[in-house]
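Moderator note: this is an archived Q&A kept for reference. The question asked for a predicted structure of one protein chain; the sequence and the answer are reproduced below.
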Amino acid sequence: MATTAPAAPVAHVAAVQGQAFARGSDGLLRILHVGDPVFDGDVLVTSDGSRLELASADGRAIIVPANETLTVDAEVAGFVTPDASDSALSVAGADINKVIEAINRGGNLDDLLEDPAAGDSAGADGGPTFVRLLRISEGVDGQGFEFDPARSAAAIDIPIDPILAAATGTTASASAPPSAATNDAPVLSLSPVPTFAEGSASAGLAVTTASATDANSDPLTYSLNNTDGYYAINATTGLVTLTAAGAALVNAGGDLPPVSVTVSDGLASDSESVSVPTTMDVNDAPVLSLTTPPTLSEGAASAGQAITTASATDEDGDPLTYSLNNTDGYYAINATTGLVTLTAAGAALVNAGGDLPPV
């Protein structure tokens, strides 16, 4: 079975910086290293920040800068070169004299060329009569170019070969994604809390007002930790008020717990707590009661005989003192125990058959 001889390389890799690749005519992609052969028809690709230098068969250096794609063909490799048959004007023999004469008299050399004919007509040597530029080979310093800064500053989307993208980690676009905006948490503050007096509170009485600032100008919502049910809050204005349960606690002389408020912009929040001053107590009058007095008999009364006993309760737990209105002098009272007794004058009134006045 006959085999096809492998194609001869048209160049070799002389130097490589970064990563460079070659895709052969079979479609396979290979990474290039120094000394690797390059064949006619190879497509060379350099990645970002790389540089590839080839040495052609005729000794020329071929430079492929970063982010470039180059198809290696006869003209790039340099094994097709122009010869005398490619010239548009033969200057051998008598023709050279015509050229010199035209130059001396300031004539136009174009007049020496044959007129082009329509169609695919051939010249005298069998080739076409038009001029064909085969190749311009010139070393160029990339820093010698001036680029439009406005154009270079703009992001340009460049389609990337998926095979190269997988090999080099290149993204499908040169455009940078926009930066994500950062959300700032709102900052909360609470107004001072007033002092509540026992017996004067009512449901809806203002406790404090929450206010907040937000750097992103997001809509804000207020809430509170109200496990005891003593407070209510307006989610929009931040006004905190007493509930019926809170008012009842104050009116009974109880102390309210601290107010804990939270403000949120939907993504972040801030919380503050403020203590409520101790409820200002109001003195409550003691409540007095008297035992039923006995029936006294004429001639049987005596000084010190018990008439009634005063007793009292006090909500505030204050020490109590008992006294009586004794304008006639018939009664006496123990200021501590509240025991009311007959005086000698009272006993004498009873024993004489008189009636005692009310105590």
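Archived answer notes: The longest strand covers residues 206-213.
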